[in-house]
Amino acid sequence: MSDEVRAVYRGYGIEVRVTPCKTMSFHGMGRRFRVSWSIFPTDNLSPAIASFPERAEFLHESEALRYGESRAHTFIDCAIYHCPQSSSTA
Length: 90
Fold this sequence. Notes:
Blueprint: E1 3-9, E2 12-25, E3 28-41, E4 50-58, H1 61-81
Antiparallel strand pairs: 1-2, 2-3, 3-4
């Protein structure tokens, strides 16, 4: 079972997915959560602009969701939203 959150940020759709997993620890098997996130145009017709599985594992599902959403916001701010726009000269 995985949880999914969809939101819109600066005109782009964000999809964050959290999936439970089991990990070995010093105390035996432990439950952790993995997160992946994707960025989509809001037209709902185009494929994902970016999609990343994160390597980190989280103890709590809410931490994984918050982290995935934060990383997607940062990606939009740094790589998409602030890109210089190409201008045409006539």
